[in-house]
Amino acid sequence: MTASMSPTEDDRPRPARFAYDRHTWKEIAHLLTNLPVSVVGFVYAVATVAIGAGLSVTVIGLPWLVGGLAGARWLGRSERARARLLLGLRIDEPSPLHVHRQRHGSGLARLWARLKDPVAWRAVLYEFIRLPWGVVTFAVTLVSLVLLWPVLPFVARGLTNADRAMVRGLLSPSDELERRIAELETDRGVVVDTAAADLRRIERDLHDGAQARLVALAMGLGLAKEKLLEDPDAAAVMVDEAHGEVKLALQELRDLARGIHPAILTDRGLDAALSAIASRCTVPVKVSVDVHERPAAAIEGIAYFTVSELLQNVSKHSAARAASVEVWRAEDRLLLQVTDDGRGGASLDGGTGMSGLADRLGAVDGLFVLDSPAGGPTVVTAELPWRTRGQD
């Protein structure tokens, strides 16, 4: 006889558990919000384009369209935020529209720059095609919630993958172009900062150097003029001192002019100019320039000042016994390499100006490579784009 046993707690059926994880629920939420969001976007896109085109013959047509495109950028930004929140889509923001480059042009030119905004137009196209897709995804998801519950996660994943593709295709930055725009914006900032720093340096050098000497010279000559009749010997001494001040002021002005753009570089090119700065280095420097034609003046100047600063670092920091400078052209690039046999250990953040050099070269689409292991040697290689004279 078999005894009847009541089921224990472990034998009782467990309550049903949903197999949907939070990612699936986020995808479902995205699909269900597609319809209201796409309706708003479609109405906005139609109003922007249709009214803007219809009023284009009037004075308010183009401003209306420009304002609508600015709003389309905002809609695109909100859609990217929704995709990041609900679809887990990692997508960067496009670069902002910079119309200040046309600030010296006419108002029509600035208007035209805004009208050509590719990011805004891609957002408008996205809003146009989203309405039918929003209707489809909303309907399919709603029906699946009621009738196709077991397969809804798979349906949601397939539909949201299409959403991801649309966002990537129309709302993401065009990688290479946007990356290049961002780089150029950064490089422009570097150039502006560098130019401002150079102007401040020139102003400081003039104020503290040649200007101060010229003021002292004027005062000395004034005193000498007063003593010329009553004490000719004292006046002669004062004139002699003033003559010395003139020589020092002239030397300081020459040094300052050399720091702005040396005459020898303008007149004789890189070979002679680099040999001149090498002769002033405290370390023996061998110079080799293998360039058969002169590059554009701007490129030539950057190469000169790069080598000049690197040789100053060799003199001040390297404790080297010898150094070398090599310059050559490789297709459309001008390359220069400065090597020393010093103690090494140089770095881009070591306070020797290397970081500033790298930024300046990067601002003109150049490269800066530093190899300086502890114990040496230090090898700095720089590349600049080659442009022939007349192209700058």
Topology:
Blueprint: H1 22-54, H2 61-87, H3 107-115, H4 118-147, H5 152-171, H6 175-227, H7 232-260, H8 263-268, H9 270-279, E1 285-290, H10 297-318, E2 323-330, E3 333-340, H11 354-362, E4 367-371, E5 378-385
Parallel strand pairs: 1-2
Antiparallel strand pairs: 2-3, 3-5, 4-5
Helix pairs in contact: 1-2, 1-4, 1-5, 2-4, 2-5, 4-5, 6-7, 9-10, 10-11
Outline the structure in words.
With 392 residues, this protein is of the alpha+beta class. The protein is 63% helix and 9% strand. β2 and β3 form a beta hairpin.
Short key terms for the protein model shown above:
9% strand, alpha+beta, five-stranded mixed sheet
- The helix count comes to 11
Q: How many E-type strands?
A: 5
| Radius of gyration using CA atoms only | 35 Å
Beta content: 5-15%
